[in-house]
Amino acid sequence: MGVNKDSNGFTFGFAIAMVVVVGVVLAITAMGLKPFQQENVQQEKMQNILAAINVNVSRNEAKTQFYDFIVERVALNYQGEVIEEKDGDIITLDDGQEAFESDPFNVDVKKEYRGLPAEDRSYPMYICEKDDERFYVIPLVGKGLWGPIWGFVSLYGDGETIYGANFDHKSETPGLGAEISLPSFEEKFEERSIFDKSGEFASVRVVKAGKAGDDPHKVDGITGGTITSVGVDEMLKRTLQIYIPYFENNKKS
After folding, report:
1. Is residue 252 within a helix (H) or strand (E), and if so which, with residue range?
2. Which among 151, 133, 136 is positioned nearest to 80, based on CA atoms?
3. Which single residue of 71, 137, 197, 214 could bond 126 by disulfide (Cβ 3.0 to 4.6 Å)?
C-alpha cells in the first residue's frame, strides 16, 4: 500500500524527520566550528589585554604579540592570595578540562561574576613587561544600564597608578553609555592613582562630567551616560580592592 502524502500522519512524520535531520546537521556544524570560535575568543581576549598596556594590534596579530609582552598569568583568591601561576603557552581544552581550568587565562570572569559569590571567584591578573618596565593587567566586569560591561585596567609596577584602560559593553546606548569603549573615555584613567595621600585605597572615581578637575583619583563620566559611568566606577572599586593585598605583600618582600 502506498504512502498517503496528504495525510496528517505523513505531514507530522515528515516534519519530525526534518527537525531531527536539521538538528543533527546544526550540531555537527557547531562542533566543527567550535575550535575556530574558541580561537577567535582567545585572540580577542589577548587583543584587549594588550590594549590595556597601550599595545594596539589586530586580532590576528594578538597571539604572537601576547607572548612578547605577557610574562606570567596569575590567579588570586578573594583574600588576594596567589592560587595559580602559569607562564608559556596558554593551556587549551586539548590538554584536558582540568588542565584548561588551571590556567588563569581561561577563567571566565563574566560567568563567575554572574554565578558565584565574590568569595568563591578566581581573580586573574596578567604580569607584563614593556620597555623594561613591569605592568599588571586586571580584568573587570560589572553592570551598565542595559547589560554587562567589562574591561581591563593596567597598573604600573608600583601597583598604585593606572597605566592604561580598555572597556567594552554589550548593549549600552550609542552616543551615551556606549562611549566607555572610546579612547576619549579610556585615556582619562591614565596616570590616575588608586591610593590617596595617606596610602589608603581610594580607587578611581567616575564622577559627573566636568567635576573631576585635577583630582588624581577622579575622572569625568559620560554626559548622559550616568548609570553606565556609575557601573564603571563600581566595577573598578569592587575589583581593584581584591588585588591590594597582593601588591602590599609584594612591597614587603
Report:
1. helix 226-252
2. 136
3. 137
| Banded pLDDT at 33 (limits 50, 70, 90) | very low
Q: For the full predicted model, state whether its pTM sits above 0.90.
A: no
Asked if 114 and 143 count as a contact pair (C-beta separation under 8 A), the reply is no
Q: Rounded CA gap, 240 and 251, in Å?
A: 17
Cell of 65: 604579540
Q: Using DSSP bridges, classify how beta strands 162-169 and 133-143 pair: parallel, antiparallel or unpaired.
A: unpaired
Instruction: Indicate the pLDDT class of residue 47, thresholds 50, 70 and 90.
Output: very high
Give the integer Cα–Cα distance in Å for 28 and 149.
Answer: 32
Q: Count the alpha carbons within 13 Å of 195 in the hemisphere toward its beta carbon.
A: 14
Question: Lowest-pLDDT range, 3-12, 66-75, 197-206?
Answer: 3-12
Amino acid at residue number 51: A
